[in-house]
Amino acid sequence: MSDSAAPERAIVIGAGLGGLASAMRLGAKGYAVTVIDRLDRPGGRGSSITQGGHRFDLGPTIVTVPQGLRDLWAACGRDFDSDVTLKPMDPFYEIRWPDGAHFTARQDDAAMEAEITRLSPGDLPGYRKFLDDAEDRYWFGYENLGRRAMHELWELIKVLPRFAWLRADRSVYAHAARRVRDPRLRFALSFHPLFIGGDPFRVTSMYILVSHLEKAFGVHYAMGGVQAIATAMANVIRDQGGHVKMGVEVDEILVENGRASGVRLIGGETLHADLVVSNADAGHTYTRLLRNRPRRRWTNAKLDRARWSMGLFVWYFGTRGTRGMWADVGHHTILVGPRYQAHIRDIFINGHLAEDMSLYVHRPSVTDPSVAPEGDDTFYVLSPVPHLGHDNGVDWAEQAEPYRQKMLAMLEERLLPGLAARVSESLVFTPEDFRDRYLSPLGAGFSIEPRILQSAWFRPHNISEELPGLYLAGAGTHPGAGLPGVIGTAEVLGTLVPDAAPVAPMKMAAE
Ligand SMILES: Cc1cc2nc3c(=O)[nH]c(=O)nc-3n(C[C@H](O)[C@H](O)[C@H](O)COP(=O)(O)OP(=O)(O)OC[C@H]3O[C@@H](n4cnc5c(N)ncnc54)[C@H](O)[C@@H]3O)c2cc1C
User: Fold this and answer.
1) Which residue's CA is minimally distant from atom 10 of ligand 1?
2) What CATH number is attached to the domain comprising 230?
3) Per-residue pLDDT band at 303 (split at 50, 70, 90)
4) pLDDT > 90? residue 504
5) Pocket probe mutation, ligand 1, options 276, 279, 309, max atoms within 8 Å of Cβ
6) CA 449 / ligand 1 centre spacing (Å)
7) Which of 218, 247, 278 corresponds to the end of one domain?
8) pLDDT value at position 510?
């Protein structure tokens, strides 16, 4: 491209964390960037809703691999730690079983080994091996595969022997079960894929690398919630000269001369650009935003056949005058239900809303006073449920309130006695809210499930297979969901998009 007086323009559809990170990378490459999102504040699933003095951080709560964020800021000539305060968590989280058994996860090796020994002394050697396995998979899966583009089939073929050697065909649970015998430890070492929408009994064992991420880099909380990260990203984009337009929805990606040339908004306005990045879900990007263009790979039929991550039922609530109560309940608690494998099967395979549930309980007010009025607590409690695409779909209009009541009863009985009388604010998200708020196909929590045949080259590519000039970032593309994943999608995207052509200096009148 030749020098011109105006910078090349890029449009990013979606201000999710992957979209914002992409916009930062493009800004650093010299593009004039405009980010467009239909919500009222940036962050996508990482945005927040404020209600009755409580800030409900809607999605991600656990920040792992802060280096990914630091690298992103550095690529823009900025210092992440000057813009966002991360607080290391100690402990990371507590797991509680119905029989009263509990397990506290920490970064400290000796403390972790003491916990393993307390629950099952014979499993200590297996646990150590599991951690070694996790580190091997980290170097290969995260540092090698996760940080480079995987759109060439050859890139996949080259690594197949290593996949085979690492038994990537085995599931996360199967790998944990080979190393430890105690069912509670098998749970503690295998539930992590649920945080990125994967079925632990079917997702590739490459994902045990998460245990290494936690151990090596810690678990952090962003003061101000992940919303604070998203807001800081939007500020960097504006400082780079870019624009973040909220409350605006893209209706279609425009094509001119066989290339992405901009977007048409709902309402008809068109915006032109030299390249377009979609951070909307990959399914939405192809079935809706490119609906008028023939597609070779990501046809509606192929996307219908894909396996999607589970849905989420999330109850956000505030409690009045409880800051001194429930002293043993920390920032992150996992309340395990009576069944593991059969329950996961109900969620992912049978599509059946089970009577029992396993809960993740988030209580940020123990760390961050900004989330609640003084003396009060802010919580969210999350239960994995089937997405909306199963034949015997759940009728959420009917089921949401009874399900919330069941959740409340479980919390009262096992974690937060006296809760019902203390609830002051309440907000529920079902998979239908994920569908309607984030335009997430089937209301899935984390886009396409990270199974082996839906990962790396098999996932929608960061450089679109369907349209030159279109790029994809976010959970539905490579390397995948989760904060480190979507920040990684922008890193990969940065390797694929050329630098913007230099802008020619304006000619002075006297010249
Ligand atoms: C409840 C929950 C808890 C989680 N917990 C964690 C955690 O603790 N740690 C972790 O690392 N990860 C966690 N995750 C996963 C992580 O939050 C997501 O994978 C990640 O935030 C997704 O980012 P994304 O870039 O794919 O964009 P998304 O967040 O999906 O955002 C996409 C944006 O695009 C916008 N959009 C879509 N279509 C259009 C359109 N046509 N026009 C305009 N805008 C459009 C949407 O409004 C949305 O804002 C959690 C997720 C959820 C839901």
Assistant:
1) 482
2) 3.50.50.60
3) very high
4) no
5) 279
6) 14
7) 218
8) 44
Q: What angle do CA 484, 65, 139 make, to 5 degrees?
A: 85
Number of domains in the chain: 3
- Domain of 481 in residue numbering reads as 9-86+222-305+447-496
Atom of ligand 1 nearest to the CA of 476: 26
Residue type for 415, please? L
> Same structural domain for residues 291 and 331?
no
| Direct distance between the N- and C-terminal alpha carbons of the chain, in angstroms, rounded to an integer | 25
Is pTM beyond 0.90? Reply is yes
Domain boundary among 194, 218, 242: 218
Structural domain contains residue 319: yes
158/240 same-domain check? no
**How far is the centre of ligand 1, averaged over its atoms, from the C-alpha of 196 (Å)?**
11
Do 208 and 140 share a domain, yes or no? Answer: yes
Instruction: For residue 177, give every residue at least 6 positions away whose Cβ sits within 8 Å of its Cβ, in sequence order, or none.
Output: 186, 190
Ligand 1 site, residue 431, Cβ cutoff 6 A: no
Q: What is the mean pLDDT of residues 2-16?
A: 86
Residue 425 structure tokens: 């604010």
CA dist 231 and 229 (Å) reads 5
Q: Whose CA is nearest to atom 27 of ligand 1?
A: 16
Instruction: State how far the Cα of 36 lies from the Cα of 43, in Å rounded to an integer.
Output: 12
Do residues 214 and 236 share a domain?
Answer: no
Residue 98 lies in a domain: no
Q: Is the CB of 38 under 6 A from ligand 1?
A: yes
